[in-house]
Design brief:
Blueprint: H1 2-21, H2 25-30, E1 37-42, H3 49-53, E2 60-65, H4 75-87, E3 92-98, H5 102-107, H6 116-119, H7 121-129, H8 131-135, H9 140-160, H10 163-170, E4 176-182, E5 189-196, H11 199-210
Parallel strand pairs: 1-2, 1-3, 3-4
Antiparallel strand pairs: 4-5
The structure holds cobalt (II) ion.
Cobalt (II) ion binds next to helix 5.
Length: 218
Amino acid sequence: MQNYHKMLENNRAWAARVLKDDTGYFGRHEAGQRPHFFFIGCCDSRVPAELLLGAGPGELFTYRNIANQAHPNDLGMLSALEYAVEFLDVKHVMVCGHHGCGGVKAAMGPHGHGVVDHWLHVVRDVYRWHEEELEALPDDVARTHRMVELNVIEQVFQLSRTPVVQRAWAKGQRPILHGLVYDLHDGLLNELVTGVDSDEKARLLGARVTSRSMPQRT
Ligand code: CO
């Protein structure tokens, strides 16, 4: 329990520090939120969205799940997306994967992980589509890196297929979709996909992710 109580102490210290620097801080947040970004990331504890983007509270609307998926059957993600796009009017939706992703690794091997095997079935499909390219890579680290990238691209494509995004684009509205990978080695975000703001661009992206001859990222 010691670590748990330390967390609560940290919270009290943080709130006091914030208030000392800016007396109106909590009052502004009580009034409502107006984030410009919807961030879909992995549950992994090493990928703290706000920290790595230099964003403060109120700037990111977030949804995290294992292997940062925009899963077509995930009502939680779809509800968050609907709220972000239709009520908060976010400008950008970012899908952020990360190197060393345990979820992606689990999807590359045999079953036997439990419930998560069901959750990862879209990621398993991505692996199957690209098995030839992946198996040709020199080692497991390179294979996982590449799978993390392919998965991010696929998840951006999945997002583009949702009724929420399709409806927004049909009306000539936002959001713009982006796909990023966080590198645990140096803390940098690598942009894989950016500026997807129309069905035409999304279809081109879909062709990329399902093509076996997809070129390596440069
Ligand atoms: Co992960």
